[in-house]
Amino acid sequence: MLPKKKLSGAEFKKIRAKKLNVNQKSASLMQTFIKLGSRQKGVEEEMCRSGDQDRSLSSSTIIGSERDNECENNTSATLSEQIQEIEAGENNGMETESTSTHNSKEDTDTQVTSDLKSMEKEGGISSINSSSELELEIINYNNPVNWKGDKVFLEQLIKNGPVYGDNLDCYPVTNTRQFSKKYFSKILPNGNSIQRKWLFYCIERDVIYCFPCLLFGGASSQFSTKKTGFRDWHNIGPRVKSHENSTAHKKCVIDLITFEINLKKRHFLTDEIQKMILSETERWKHILKCILDAILFCVKNNEALRGSVEKIGHPNSGKFLQTLELISHYDPILKQHIDSENHKKYFSPKIQNELIAIAGNAVRNEIVSRIKQAKYFSVILDTTPDVSKSEQLSLVVRYVEKNGKTCSIEERFLMFIEVKEKTGYALANILQKVLQELGLDIQNIRGQAYDNGSNMAGQYQGVQARILQENPTARFVPCSAHSLNLVALHSASISPEIITFFGIIQNLFNFFAHSTVRWTKLKNALNITLKGFSDTRWSSKALALNALITQFELVLDLLEEMTDVSIYSGETVIGAKNFQKNLKNFDFVILLVFWSSLLNKINKINLLLQKKDLTLDTACKHIKGLLEEIKENRDGYFEKSERDALQICQNCTLSTEYKEVRKRKIKKMSGELADDFYLDPKTKQKQLFFQVIDSIITQLSNRYKGLHEICSDFSFLNGSVLSKMSLSDTEKCINALCDKYPNDFNCTEFIQEAESFKFQTQELFDIQGQSALEIYQNLHKYDLMAEYPNFATALHIFLTIPVTSASCERTFSKLKLLKNYLRSTMSQQRLSNTAILSIERIIAESISFDKYISDFASQKARQCCL
């Protein structure tokens, strides 16, 4: 053999330049990815033309590349058949390549199989999907550093094997040494050659690895170390032989083969199991739908689900299980499930809580999606203690909802939140946290409505002040109904005479209510029973006064009857005589007439203010109307009340004289007259009337300043105001509004829209006399939102601002029904989800829970089948 010829200097220079070029391209080359069941055209041919550059390309194939026509023509068999052929060939372990494909019983096209195998060796096929769909999987199968450690990836990698890197003509030179292609096979003593399937070459890192040891052997040698690999080309021969003859390596190979066998067994059973799962899923869907319907039936009707015994068929099993038992009489599938010996019935409290949570979250997500669609919203908060002495915060959101050609104002309940502190700081933090969890942006809040408590409405430390610091456009409106109730409460405690008057009425109710005998007599004698007072029930005083004044004569007759000592006890007789004395007093009668008339007017407005769809302009009209009526009749209240009181006294044959009060002796001071100043009873009563009326007028003016201010900012949106307003006044109003909402309007366009809207929409609808809500509905009806975007946005914001927190009070009524003394240990999550299903039952009935039931049923079916 001739000695090896030494290369010239120019040749060495070319080799160095070529190596430098390879390193630069390898450093900048993007990692390429394996496509399940796809390969690029002419990988081997391209490598021959491009040299070392294609060594990095051959490690993986870009996913999503188009199949070439030549590959399609050569693969006439179906893709699933080709996979079976490949997998069957790989199962032969360490047999030679020449016999591997012939030994597979499933081979139907030998040529196709060999083609696919050659493609797999080239890195063109790393995994094949049975559906033959092109999917993107961002994985480099040639570089172990990028391999994931999850079970799914492990199965995919073992099924298809790594990219071996055995299709390169030459390999990079390191210290005058390089890897040789001959190490991919082993020469036996008899001259036969077998492939080393355990060895693969990493093109990017210029190292070799042992595939089984990488997966099952840990980091016991360089062949199984991801970060380093093996690159000692000088000693590669003995090191490869030593490694493949080691006990640890052989154990890893056995583990790999065992895993492949189990993987294929599971693949063959997939179709059968899938059919079982589908059948079981349909059965569970039906059963779970029955269970969910029974739960929703109980929840929507505020009923307790559980009984004292968690066993269906037991008399004390509770309404949920009894409802399921009733349904099973007409449902054979549910009947079979109940009667089966399977212990997995899914009737347990845990399943109840899971299904309640699924349904509650579905309703809550639906509401949140509608809020996001509307963009702007307002928050309404209030707190109350529950039966377990926990403080519950009710969160209600107000927004404008669009449905086709119509739109409406909605106030939706979201959840109950248990709070440990009631300070403004704590409540504001809770609100911000909940909104963030729900995905609602606090910057889209345009209104706040709370009661008049200092922790809520405080000017500096209240919730409203802290939210305003985060979002200055979240305008605060004190609850109008609560404010009106406070007006009446404060006026009713303005003087000792008024306090005594209401005390007599409350004690009269207690006198009858504390005895079943007296209450029975009262019910038999009166058409309407007497009512008591409540500081939180806004209309309680008006109802109590109406019940007494409309049946005043009957009450006196009943008290007269109860003074008979031969029939009633001494306590009853004494109480009846005392109340007779108080009720027959003319001062009491005139106050009864006065307060009944006054509170009826206030109560009518109070009921109007509690509507969900009430807007600020309508509320302002009602408040202003009440204030003007009281001012106008201020001087005539006493005379009218006196006339009506005289009529009642004449009908009941009572005295019409004012009660004489003894003249009080007042100490004479220096410079005073000798005689004490004295007012006759009638004049004193008249002054008391004026004192009460003036107090109401003052409080109505002061408590609704914020409401009137916001109405004034948006007053030009009212049809009657806009139609009569001049252009200069309109510009002033719009400029002032844009200053307060700088991120919501384009001021110049807004002015142009308002001026043109006033004249151009006359042919469609008459804006004069229309409220803001009616104008907004017409804009939506005639698809004019795009033509008047700023005008529509202003109307949208105005309608979003709440008037009262009455919706929170209504949720408290549900709270008392859901969490009563028998259900005082209910968890907070179950309470909140149950409440939203009960309060927002219309949305709950409109939502299809099929998707949630299918997901839930699939989980249960797989648990049973697998």
Automatic annotation (TrEMBL):
Comp. bias regions, Polar residues: 93-102
One Pfam family it belongs to: Dimer_Tnp_hAT
TTF-type domain: residues covered: 183-268
Basic and acidic residues bias (residue ranges): 41-55
InterPro entries membership: DUF4371 (IPR025398), HATC_C_dom (IPR008906), RNaseH-like_sf (IPR012337), Znf_TTF (IPR006580)
Signal peptide extent: none
Region (Disordered): 38-76, 88-124
Record SUPFAM superfamilies: Ribonuclease H-like (SSF53098)
UniProt-recorded Gene Ontology molecular function terms: protein dimerization activity
Protein name: TTF-type domain-containing protein
The species this protein was found in: Photinus pyralis (Common eastern firefly)
